[in-house]
Amino acid sequence: MTREIKISINHLTKAFYHKKRRVTAFEDVSLQVEDGEFVCLVGPSGCGKTTLLRILADLEQPSAGEFHIRQTNSGKPLQSMIFQQNGIIPWMTVRENAAIGLTFRHSPAQLVKERVDYYLDKVGLLQFANHYPKELSGGMKQRVSIARAFANDPEILLMDEPFAALDEQNKFILQEELLNIWEETKKTVLFITHSIDEALMLSDRIILLSAQPGKIAGEMRVGLPRPRSMEQIRSDPQMAEMFVQIWNHLQSEVQGSRT
Ligand SMILES: Nc1ncnc2c1ncn2[C@@H]1O[C@H](COP(=O)(O)OP(=O)(O)OP(=O)(O)O)[C@@H](O)[C@H]1O
Questions:
Q1: According to the model, what pLDDT value does residue 1 have?
Q2: Is the Cβ atom of 82 under 6 angstroms away from ligand 1?
Q3: What's this model's pTM, rounded to 2 decimal places?
């Protein structure tokens, strides 16, 4: 059964101008993401992944092309973005941070409390609700960002290497927590990662981008049933083959861009 298209990106290009020099971050990118799909973007550094997400988050304007995010409920925000770090506000408590999107929209206090506490509980932070960010580890701070994004109940989620700064163990735990909440909410997710393992673990589909200016160089469906484990990713011959394909793609793009 085909699902409705949630994100439609058509011939999108973004160029920056710096001291009369033009840098084309990415060029002619077209991509359709289905409702509830988890899509990872993988590509060499500088190919415009963050810029693409920032455009979808309305933080940046495209130079050419257009995109559309299908809105099912006019009361919902279109998107929430989770960054690699620095996403939470130091002078607000965990609960206040997780509630930002909802309080900004003047949601009723009871609804804010219920929804925020629900997601803080999901990420194991309910007992830290009144703590401040300086009292939290890096992993706990990212959990606050995840709780905030899901509590905000956006149409789509944009995640820019949210676990890149974490150690392997914490990264793995947070990936599992994210997948548990995603399975429950079935949000449409666009997720940037440099980790091939992470892309195989999380994605329904992986989009490969070329070196700058980023273009879509290929895509792969990850057919492994969920829930997935790292042991499966490592032992499944098809996953091993995909790992090597993505690895080779990144190697050749990085080498090609240096010559
Ligand atoms: N505000 C800006 N002004 C000028 N150039 C910019 C700006 N933002 C990004 N760029 C340039 O656009 C290109 C793409 O940057 P972007 O951060 O989107 O790449 P990326 O694929 O996310 O990289 P990485 O994987 O290293 O995070 C880079 O060359 C970057 O220097």
A1: 63
A2: no
A3: 0.95
* Cα(171)–Cα(182) distance, integer angstroms: 16
Closest CA to 157 of 182, 202, 189, 180: 189
Q: Pick the residue whose CA is nearest to atom 12 on ligand 1.
A: 25
- Compute the average pLDDT of residues 16-40: 95
In 19-160, beta strands by DSSP E = 21-34, 38-42, 64-69, 79-82, 156-160
Which residue minimizes the CA distance to atom 26 of ligand 1? 45
Q: Which residue in this structure is represented by tokens 């098809």?
A: 238
Among 177, 171, 158, 146, residue whose Cα is nearest residue 39 = 158
Kindly report the protein residue whose alpha carbon is nearest to atom 1 of ligand 1.
16
Please give the mean pLDDT across all residues of the chain.
94
Termini Cα distance of the chain? 45
pLDDT digits (tens, 9 = 90+) for 107-133: 999 999 999 999 999 999 999 999 999
